[in-house]
């Protein structure tokens, strides 16, 4: 997919990966609608790229639908929907796979999964009718592997991958492109607040890249129309190892998890 003269809506675009995507896509010649819970930040980004900014909470179906309607009103039918907004918690302080409470699980599910469903539902009919359109979902390497110390994030990101696969299988022959963007550690606000915790340490094992590097990889992936966009290429080999011997991969992940707590006093997980 070439971005020139395309209409794009990006959620979670006031900062981080979303902001970098908005700027890069605009530089490629796209008309960009910038949506975020931080409305002021969204409008600031939009002002710098001659786009439109709006405040939305993607955990609410009606607001996702409204974002699509506003983008369509300003720029015409949407060619590329980037469901980029995401949320992350950790298993702290208990560090068990059931530590996160029901409220956290509900928000994770709505933002990391249902926002993708609601967005696709809002744009698919017209895309299918005209025989073209693209859906880009920012997921995470956690959706392909697992994020140590964050069961809720890992689970919802796996679900997001499953939904994207269904979109690609069901609508690929109707002219609909689908990609999932799956980086590891990126220099974002989410990572900055948790760098001393095991989940962040695990994600940073292969290095931390900038949002702009992610945007570069995304443009290349969209041009190639690749389902998997992997800004950290190591993820492909990890996936291969997981598929080759699942039990061995789980054992390796247990060892890796143990190493993250080796010099740490938080050992509740081992009891």
Structure in words:
This protein is of the alpha/beta class and 271 residues long. It has helices at residues 16-27, 39-48, 61-75, 102-130, 151-171, 189-192, 198-203, 211-224, 234-244, 246-260; strands at residues 7-11, 31-36, 52-55, 80-83, 133-138, 176-181, 228-229. A seven-stranded parallel β-sheet has the order 3-2-1-4-5-6-7, with helices on both faces. Residues 265-271 have low confidence and may be disordered.
Quick synopsis:
It contains 10 helices and 7 strands.
Secondary structure layout:
Elements: E1 7-11, H1 16-27, E2 31-36, H2 39-48, E3 52-55, H3 61-75, E4 80-83, H4 102-130, E5 133-138, H5 151-171, E6 176-181, H6 189-192, H7 198-203, H8 211-224, E7 228-229, H9 234-244, H10 246-260
Parallel strand pairs: 1-2, 1-4, 2-3, 4-5, 5-6, 6-7
Helix pairs in contact: 1-8, 3-4, 4-5, 9-10
| Shape field | globular
Mind describing the biggest β-sheet? Answer: 7 strands, parallel
Reported by name, the CATH topology is Rossmann fold
Return the structural class.
alpha/beta
Write out the strand line-up for the largest beta sheet, numbering strands in chain order: 3-2-1-4-5-6-7
Order of helices and strands: EHEHEHEHEHEHHHEHH
Mean pLDDT over all positions: 93
Helix proportion of residues, in percent?
Answer: 40-55%
Estimated radius of gyration: 18 Å
End-to-end CA span: 51 Å
Count every helix, treating DSSP H or I runs of 4 or more residues as helices: 10
Provide the low-confidence segments as ranges: 265-271
Primary descriptors:
271 residues, alpha/beta, Rossmann fold, seven-stranded parallel beta sheet, globular
């Amino acid at each position: 997919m070439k971005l020139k003269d395309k209409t794009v809506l990006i959620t979670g675009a006031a900062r981080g990966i979303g902001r970098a995507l908005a700027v890069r896509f605009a530089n490629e010649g796209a008309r960009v609608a910038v949506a975020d819970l931080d409305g002021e930040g969204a409008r600031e980004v939009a002002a710098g790229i001659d786009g439109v900014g709006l405040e939305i909470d993607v955990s609410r179906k009606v607001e996702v639908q409204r974002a699509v309607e506003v983008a369509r009103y300003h720029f015409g039918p949407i060619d590329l929907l980037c469901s980029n907004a995401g949320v992350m918690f950790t298993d702290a302080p208990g560090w068990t796979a059931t530590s996160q409470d029901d409220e956290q699980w509900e928000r994770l599910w709505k933002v990391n999964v249902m926002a993708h469903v609601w967005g696709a539902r809002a744009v698919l009919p017209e895309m299918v009718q005209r025989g073209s359109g693209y859906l880009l979902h920012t997921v995470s390497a956690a959706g392909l592997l697992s994020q140590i110390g964050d069961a809720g994030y890992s689970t919802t990101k796996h679900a997001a991958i499953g939904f994207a696969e269904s979109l690609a299988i069901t609508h690929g022959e109707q002219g609909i492109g689908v990609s999932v963007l799956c980086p590891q550690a990126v220099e974002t606000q989410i990572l900055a607040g948790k760098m001393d915790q095991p989940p962040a340490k695990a994600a940073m094992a292969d290095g931390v890249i900038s949002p702009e590097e992610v945007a570069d990889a995304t443009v290349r992936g969209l041009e190639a129309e690749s389902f998997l966009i992997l800004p950290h290429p190591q993820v492909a080999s990890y996936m291969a190892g997981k598929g080759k011997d699942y039990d061995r991969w789980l054992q390796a992940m247990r060892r890796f998890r143990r190493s993250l707590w080796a010099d740490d006093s938080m050992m509740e997980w081992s009891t």
